[in-house]
Amino acid sequence: MCADKTYDVVIVGSGISGVLIAHELGRAGKQVLILEAGAPLPHDINDYLNRFYSNAAKVPEIPYTPELFTKDGKSLVDFGTVNAGRPTVLSLAAKGNQLGDWTDPKKSYLVQVGKLPFASTSERINGGTVRHWLGTSFRFLPNDFEMSTRYGKFIDWPIRYDTGPADLRLKPWYDKAEHAIGVSADVKDQEYLGLTFDGPYPMPAIPLSLGDKRISDDLAGFTHDGVELKVRSTPAGRNSQPYQDRRVCAGNTNCIPICPIGAKYDPSVTLAKALRTGNVEIWYRTVACDVVIGENNRVSQIKYLQYQDDVGPQTGSGAVSAKMYVVAGHAIETPRLLLMSRDRQGVANSSKMVGKNLMDHPLYLAWALMPEGKEVFPYRGPLSTAGIEDLRDGPFRKTRAAFRIEIGNEGWNFPIGDPATTTLDFINGSNASQLNDTQPKPQPLFGTALLKKLNSVFIRQFRLGFLVEQEPETRNQVALSTKYTDGLGLPRPEITYDLSDYTKRGFAEAKALATAIFHKLGAKEYTRQAADDPSQFEWPVGSKELIKYYGAGHIVGTYCMGTHSNNSVVNADQRSWDHDNLYLVGSGTFPTVATGNPTLTIAALSLRTADKLIKALN
Amino acid sequence: VIPHRRRRGSRESPQFQPDQAQTAASQETIMTVISRRTVLTGAAATGAASAVGAVNVPIAAIADDQADLQTFIEISAALTGIDVKKLVPFLDPIDIKQTYFNKAQKDSAFNDLLDRWRKRPVGSDAGVLLKDPDPVRYLARNIMIAWYLGAWCDPAELAKYDGPNPPPGPPPTTVITAVAYTQGWAWRAAQAHPMGYSDLRFGYWADRPFTLEDLTGVA
């Protein structure tokens, strides 16, 4: 460490946007320092794997630090004591729940004060939240960037897919991002709804699973809104050939939370390359806490606090200086840092939009059992290898939210935690899975009857996930808690969240379509939700019918990009309107969540910003 | 290297049957048992371990333990329905049976479980262990949960499913060890592999899986 050194660029955060920019700058000979709030990569990946294997709660956050549980393993850690806390889905249970309680800031890192829980989580560790991503690498559709122009809804992006001024087209940057990550896909399967390509993907597509093929065959000719639903392979940041000195996917069925063999891209791959340039440094367990504004309204330094143990005393503090600054802390921590700067008066916020328009890509989950003789053989291959994308765009976007449909390869693992829940049902004579439905009461089994029963149901399980485009609304926001702090005494993020009727209409459509698809397949639907689950809403209003939503892990929109300083936080280059040498990157700059999973677009925008930064430094 | 190879060779020879492997009181087996008992019972067994050095082996205790392990394996196969040759393979470097045996031994119903199995009427199946809502039933269910999921439950939680208000959800489980998770038979019942633990190759998911019989010995 050399605190006196002046860097070209200081970057806050070692997630995908931070490391892609660091690598480009390092290659260009620029001196870069990354401040990472969380821990470094362990020397042995088995530290992560063992935490995953040995914990009953196989949630996306479980392999990573800081620890989610107290030492006895019986309760969630008090997030007021953790130095670099993070949200977990275990905090999303109903009010009064023993383990997690979404309304209780002792059991939830996010101080949730909205009507509905914000249900997505993020990581504060080397590699950031992309540590636990699925690998899905879609380009956004041309119309995703032009919702206002095309449908009179939301707002247009200041950037386009492949129209308008050459400098403001994202298409060439998507190509670079696909090569930086290493995406496996076939162009012919991805040319739909206006998407065009200039060249092939770096690797051929990941093969479809048996379930994908079964659904594709049995759904042939099925239409919705006049559109034929076609099963397409999903572009994946997962190797189908050796790439970047990494192995080929071996189908461990565990992309989320962790690929055991490194076949799935994660930002530590790019971070290692950045460090090898010799021009990039990283300081771990270093929490940026104040963006200091100096002369000419330019950032003059970033102050930080340091710690050694996840729960323990602060061990250091200081400030670093650079010519340019990049905040890459994702869509909750970035606005938090901006808002807590300058003695809580905030920076980069003349628009008053910092923290506003918090969005998720909320997911409707539906599950079913195929008929006997129509097995899909789940729990094999990557978690998802295909989806139905043809409903990502259409005139319906004037009145209801669009969605894509992800086909799962992991049986009922996501919906009910199988194979554990069904196994426990048939051993104990319970029926949490709804599959042990013997009348008048569920029966316990043993011996070959148990084994054959489990086999018969497991090989027919499948699920569909509908990722719904959430409407941007300023009432949904990240603010600073005035009451609750973290282990370093910094104010925790306070979240206000709800879903609009436009978004809810998208969910209602998803629900009806799921049932129609299951009917066409001859599958028996088992979708249901717990009565006390807080992540659900009544629809239609007054009907007493409830629709549950899940977080997609796609946290978007809290420092949006735009065309003017009065309605956005950054411009199309992701540069602050207020402070010339401050860039804010990551999905927080998305004006809308759009219809694809966000990571590839985060990467494309980051590479474009890196190019702008290098030009500005030269 | 050479003795190791010779040992493998002799075990793989046709004369050396798996059943003999389970019961053979070779010096090697004794050493294994002693070391595991040492872990299990602490100071008292440490004395036994040093007794090995003095060639004063408490053979009776070791034989009892071996017999109990053998009975435990029989019970495990009967409860899970999985062919014993698959459940406890002849070449068994992971040796997860010992982990589960050790876990089950700590349960106060363990001796009753063995007794009930050994004294069962001729021709009866593992149902004799599951008849009454008693501690033996919950230990038997825990043994199934261990083999299928690598997990264990508080017997009091399992007893709730026999009560007047059975819980709507599954019981809370604890994963026995990280290795136990990777050896769960629920995944093979699905003709698959544990999520996050597979030694299959790229693209296998596009082809039909191994049959249930290949994996479990049950057609």
Topology:
The complex is a heterodimer of chains A (618) and B (219).
Chain A: E1 6-12, H1 16-27, E2 32-35, H2 46-54, E3 111-112, H3 147-151, H4 171-181, H5 187-190, H6 210-218, E4 223-224, E5 227-228, E6 231-233, H7 267-276, E7 280-283, E8 286-293, E9 299-307, E10 314-327, H8 330-344, E11 363-369, E12 384-388, E13 403-408, H9 413-416, H10 420-428, H11 447-458, E14 461-468, E15 477-485, E16 491-496, H12 501-521, E17 524-525, E18 536-538, E19 546-548, E20 582-584, H13 599-617
Parallel strand pairs in A: 1-2, 1-10, 2-7, 3-16, 10-20
Antiparallel strand pairs in A: 4-5, 6-12, 8-9, 9-10, 11-14, 11-17, 12-13, 13-14, 15-16, 18-19
Helix pairs in contact in A: 1-7, 1-13, 4-13
Chain B: H1 2-12, H2 18-23, H3 27-41, H4 43-53, H5 59-80, H6 84-87, H7 96-105, H8 110-118, H9 135-149, E1 151-152, H10 155-159, E2 174-175, H11 178-182, H12 185-189, H13 212-216
Describe the structure.
Helices cover 23% and strands 17% of the residues of chain A. By secondary structure, chain A is an alpha/beta fold. In chain A, the strands form 5 sheets. In chain A, strands 1, 2, 7, 8, 9, 10 and 20 form a 7-stranded mixed beta sheet that branches. Chain A has a 6-stranded antiparallel beta sheet with strand order 6-12-13-14-11-17, covered by helices on one side. In chain A, strands 3-16-15 form a 3-stranded mixed beta sheet. In chain A, a hairpin with a 2-residue loop joins strand 4 and strand 5 (227-228). The mean pLDDT of chain A is 97. Chain B is mostly helical. Chain B has 13 helices and 2 strands. Chain B has helices at residues 2-12, 18-23, 27-41, 43-53, 59-80, 84-87, 96-105, 110-118, 135-149, 155-159, 178-182, 185-189, 212-216, and strands at 151-152, 174-175. A two-stranded antiparallel ribbon of chain B has the order 1-2. In chain B, helix 3 packs antiparallel against helix 4 and helix 5 (59-80) crosses helix 9. The longest helix of chain B has 22 residues, at 59-80. The radius of gyration of chain B is 19 Å and the shape is globular. In chain B, 32% of the residues are buried. At the A-B interface, helix 2, helix 10 and helix 11 of A face helix 5, helix 9, strand 2, helix 11 and helix 12 of B.
